[in-house]
């Protein structure tokens, strides 16, 4: 009986084992099928994106031509411009605004699917070949003048400048062909005055092209940037270039009109505010606001008086409001898609910044550097080199400053850390506040972010060389920690890491304390070598292990840092983009049909400023409503009191970390600067990733070594947070 019982049990286990194998096989098949479906959807999104982009480019190219104005635009206005629901603005709403909102929507869906993908692309030889094939396009081509500019950036910059020159050429050609001595009335303006009037208009039209792209680079959470591998930090210089172009063209536009009005004795036109046409006074207010912002962007002013630069940039609201009043909402919609996406991003940041976050501890290093440790929700994931905007009301209620995150969301799921070096008034006050007392039990802090690349591809390299100067080491700390996690949890081959860091004094070496989390064994996971250079001292003059630790007692209302839109933030962003735009369209359609259209049909035309104001209010209401609802829907999900508990680091553990790290992995060179040419040229390996973060001269030196036409195996990437 016992033997028969064991036989039954054995047979049962065999059935269970077979069922488990069958179930596992079904799961694998289902997962593969699911991944294939996602791949198909992503390819469809890419195809749609290319079609929309090509159509948009064609529209921008054709816009300054007579063909567009006399044939295309005339045909579209005949079909759409007479609509009782949208009227004349409906054409630009469909042609210019809708495609870009659709692109942002598709980008969000694509990033959501990309985030959900479980297939490890770095292990794919095909994927690596594809990345290496286009690696040459990321190599530096220009090092000075505009900064470090890659081959790809030169290509796009050339295309954009060609578009501007094409537009100006077409506009000026039209001016000189149509305005001749024969076409000017005898009692009208002189020939040069008539042409100056026309040229002034054309300069404004060209400036509007630049304005159409101005706000994309500063939309920190934009899907358009993330989808093409950009971040707001890496693309901030595009905003600077575009801003300079906008103000150059708009200033020329304003000066030309001032000369025209003075020469024709029409100075009173400067104060005119037309009910249904162009408002000159609104344009002048726009120009003055722009000039004030432009003046404070001068590098000497921006760096020495950052607060002045920061506060005056809030004039962008005045600039855009009166720009819409100046040209009317119909024409403003051409340049409005980027501003619409920026408004959504700005309001989401506002919602996130309303809450105080849970600051659990701080470490004060002897080099006037502070590490702040926050509690975070485990569902908040971010890539290495991400940044966090920090506001401390006790120092300044209005100032927000970006700092690089040094922790890894994978290695440290419940902690987020930033490093702050004393380099300005705000950071110096913070360091003095924490270093001078042990009596601080609580520090109120608000944050925005994190913001960073959607993904990183450091694993594609055989080796990584990271070159830093001073506090430029911070983004590399997060990269090392992230690679440490990948090495300890998967079979991926981790590239050999070489960290070349230059410091002014030996006290700065204490920043090496922050490379690894406490009690982390590194030797069994990654191959790392640290070459530290102290440039202004020949011997060590500082005890690097003297680190002050502060532990805070957060208030019950303080929350862990969490994603404002939950773990599926890209999907929720797509929802906000689509739903807010649809609500905006519905509001405008109703108001136009039952309020604006009846008045326009009467002898008294509807005031242009009122129409513009209605559109702006409709956009604001739709964005605020949808963003608030999305935030509230996710609030219960991401705010979990269980996430508020993280371990506080003890001083003993912190002080012992440096002693474990330096002897085994670090070589310190006193009284010399790193010979970057000697350290980089001749590195072995088919793909060597060279990352640099530090002073401008250091970045330019490394870029020159890795520039286009130099060592083929060096893949350059500059990480700069200098605005």
TrEMBL record:
<keyword id="KW-0408">Iron</keyword>
<feature type="transmembrane region" description="Helical">
    <location>
        <begin position="93"/>
        <end position="113"/>
    </location>
</feature>
<feature type="domain" description="FAD-binding FR-type">
    <location>
        <begin position="352"/>
        <end position="457"/>
    </location>
</feature>
<comment type="similarity">
    <text>Belongs to the ferric reductase (FRE) family.</text>
</comment>
<dbReference type="GO" id="GO:0140618">
    <property type="term" value="F:ferric-chelate reductase (NADH) activity"/>
</dbReference>
<feature type="transmembrane region" description="Helical">
    <location>
        <begin position="281"/>
        <end position="301"/>
    </location>
</feature>
<keyword id="KW-0249">Electron transport</keyword>
<keyword id="KW-0560">Oxidoreductase</keyword>
<dbReference type="InterPro" id="IPR013121">
    <property type="entry name" value="Fe_red_NAD-bd_6"/>
</dbReference>
<dbReference type="Pfam" id="PF08022">
    <property type="entry name" value="FAD_binding_8"/>
</dbReference>
<dbReference type="GO" id="GO:0006811">
    <property type="term" value="P:monoatomic ion transport"/>
</dbReference>
<feature type="transmembrane region" description="Helical">
    <location>
        <begin position="612"/>
        <end position="633"/>
    </location>
</feature>
<feature type="transmembrane region" description="Helical">
    <location>
        <begin position="570"/>
        <end position="592"/>
    </location>
</feature>
<keyword id="KW-0406">Ion transport</keyword>
<keyword id="KW-0472">Membrane</keyword>
<dbReference type="Pfam" id="PF08030">
    <property type="entry name" value="NAD_binding_6"/>
</dbReference>
<feature type="transmembrane region" description="Helical">
    <location>
        <begin position="199"/>
        <end position="218"/>
    </location>
</feature>
<feature type="transmembrane region" description="Helical">
    <location>
        <begin position="238"/>
        <end position="260"/>
    </location>
</feature>
<dbReference type="GO" id="GO:0046872">
    <property type="term" value="F:metal ion binding"/>
</dbReference>
<keyword id="KW-1133">Transmembrane helix</keyword>
<keyword id="KW-0274">FAD</keyword>
<dbReference type="GO" id="GO:0005886">
    <property type="term" value="C:plasma membrane"/>
</dbReference>
<keyword id="KW-0479">Metal-binding</keyword>
<feature type="transmembrane region" description="Helical">
    <location>
        <begin position="141"/>
        <end position="165"/>
    </location>
</feature>
<dbReference type="InterPro" id="IPR013130">
    <property type="entry name" value="Fe3_Rdtase_TM_dom"/>
</dbReference>
<keyword id="KW-0349">Heme</keyword>
<feature type="transmembrane region" description="Helical">
    <location>
        <begin position="44"/>
        <end position="63"/>
    </location>
</feature>
<keyword id="KW-0813">Transport</keyword>
<dbReference type="InterPro" id="IPR050369">
    <property type="entry name" value="RBOH/FRE"/>
</dbReference>
<dbReference type="Pfam" id="PF01794">
    <property type="entry name" value="Ferric_reduct"/>
</dbReference>
<dbReference type="InterPro" id="IPR017927">
    <property type="entry name" value="FAD-bd_FR_type"/>
</dbReference>
<protein>
    <recommendedName>
        <fullName>ferric-chelate reductase (NADH)</fullName>
        <ecNumber>1.16.1.7</ecNumber>
    </recommendedName>
</protein>
<dbReference type="InterPro" id="IPR013112">
    <property type="entry name" value="FAD-bd_8"/>
</dbReference>
<keyword id="KW-0285">Flavoprotein</keyword>
<keyword id="KW-0812">Transmembrane</keyword>
<keyword id="KW-0520">NAD</keyword>
<feature type="transmembrane region" description="Helical">
    <location>
        <begin position="313"/>
        <end position="344"/>
    </location>
</feature>
């Amino acid at each position: 009986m016992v033997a028969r019982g064991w036989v039954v049990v054995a047979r049962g286990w065999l059935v269970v084992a077979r069922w488990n194998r069958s179930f596992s096989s079904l799961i694998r098949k289902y997962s593969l099928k699911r991944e294939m479906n996602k791949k198909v959807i992503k390819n469809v999104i890419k195809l749609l994106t290319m079609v929309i982009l090509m159509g948009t480019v064609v529209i921008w190219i054709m816009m300054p031509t007579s063909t567009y104005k006399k044939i295309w635009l005339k045909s579209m206005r005949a079909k759409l411009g007479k609509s009782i629901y949208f009227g004349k603005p409906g054409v630009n709403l469909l042609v210019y605004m809708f495609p870009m909102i659709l692109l942002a929507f598709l980008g969000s869906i694509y990033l959501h699917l990309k985030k959900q993908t479980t297939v490890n692309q770095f292990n794919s030889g095909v994927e690596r070949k594809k990345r290496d094939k286009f690696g040459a396009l990321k190599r530096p081509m220009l090092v000075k003048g505009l900064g470090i500019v890659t081959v790809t950036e030169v290509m796009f910059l050339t295309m954009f400048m060609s578009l501007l020159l094409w537009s100006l050429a077409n506009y000026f050609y039209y001016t000189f062909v149509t305005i001749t001595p024969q076409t000017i009335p005898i009692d009208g303006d002189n020939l040069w005055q008539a042409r100056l009037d026309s040229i002034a208009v054309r300069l404004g039209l060209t400036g509007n092209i630049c304005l159409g792209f101005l706000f994309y680079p500063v939309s920190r959470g934009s899907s358009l940037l993330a989808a093409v591998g950009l971040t707001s930090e890496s693309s901030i210089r595009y905003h600077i270039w575009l801003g300079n172009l906008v103000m150059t063209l708009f200033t020329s536009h304003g000066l030309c009109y001032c000369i025209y009005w003075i020469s024709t004795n029409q100075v009173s036109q400067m104060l005119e505010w037309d009910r249904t046409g162009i408002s000159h006074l609104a344009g002048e207010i726009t120009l003055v606001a722009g000039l004030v912002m432009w003046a404070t962007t001068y590098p000497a002013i921006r760096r020495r008086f950052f607060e002045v630069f920061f506060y005056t940039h809030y004039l962008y609201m005045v600039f855009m409001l009166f720009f819409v009043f100046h040209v009317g909402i119909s024409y403003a919609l051409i340049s409005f898609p980027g501003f619409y996406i920026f408004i959504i991003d700005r309001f989401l940041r506002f919602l996130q910044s309303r809450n105080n976050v849970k600051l659990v501890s701080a470490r004060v290093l002897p080099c006037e550097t502070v590490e702040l440790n926050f509690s975070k929700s485990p569902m908040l994931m971010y890539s290495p080199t991400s940044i966090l905007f920090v506001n401390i009301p006790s120092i300044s209620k209005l100032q927000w400053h970006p700092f690089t995150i040094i922790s890894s969301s994978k290695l440290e799921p419940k902690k987020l850390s930033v490093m702050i070096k004393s380099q300005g008034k705000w950071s110096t006050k913070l360091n003095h506040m924490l270093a001078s007392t042990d009596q601080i039990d609580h520090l109120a802090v608000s944050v925005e972010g994190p913001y960073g690349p959607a993904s990183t591809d450091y694993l594609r390299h055989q080796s990584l060389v990271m070159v830093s100067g001073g506090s430029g080491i911070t983004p590399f700390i997060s990269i090392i920690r992230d690679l440490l996690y990948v090495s300890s949890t998967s079979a991926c081959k981790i590239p050999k890491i070489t960290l070349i860091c230059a410091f002014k004094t030996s006290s700065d070496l204490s920043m090496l304390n922050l490379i690894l989390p406490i009690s982390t064994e590194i030797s069994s996971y990654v191959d790392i070598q640290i070459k530290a250079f102290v440039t202004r001292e020949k011997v060590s003059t500082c005890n690097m292990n003297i680190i002050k630790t502060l532990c805070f007692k957060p208030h019950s209302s303080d929350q862990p840092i969490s994603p404002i839109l939950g773990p599926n933030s890209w999907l929720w962003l797509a929802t906000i983009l689509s739903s807010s735009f649809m609500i905006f369209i519905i509001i405008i359609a109703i108001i136009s049909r039952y309020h604006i259209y009846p008045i326009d049909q009467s002898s008294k035309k509807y005031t242009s400023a009122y129409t513009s104001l209605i559109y702006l209010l409709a956009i604001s209401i739709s964005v605020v409503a949808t963003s608030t609802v999305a935030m509230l829907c996710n609030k219960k999900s991401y705010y979990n009191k269980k996430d508020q508990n993280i371990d506080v680091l003890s001083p003993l553990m912190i002080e012992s970390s440096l002693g474990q790290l330096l002897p085994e992995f670090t070589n310190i060179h006193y009284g010399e600067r790193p010979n970057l040419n000697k350290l980089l040229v001749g590195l072995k390996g088919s793909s060597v990733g060279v990352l640099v973060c530090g002073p401008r001269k250091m970045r330019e030196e490394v870029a020159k070594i890795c520039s286009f036409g130099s060592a083929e195996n060096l893949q350059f990437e500059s990480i700069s947070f200098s605005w």
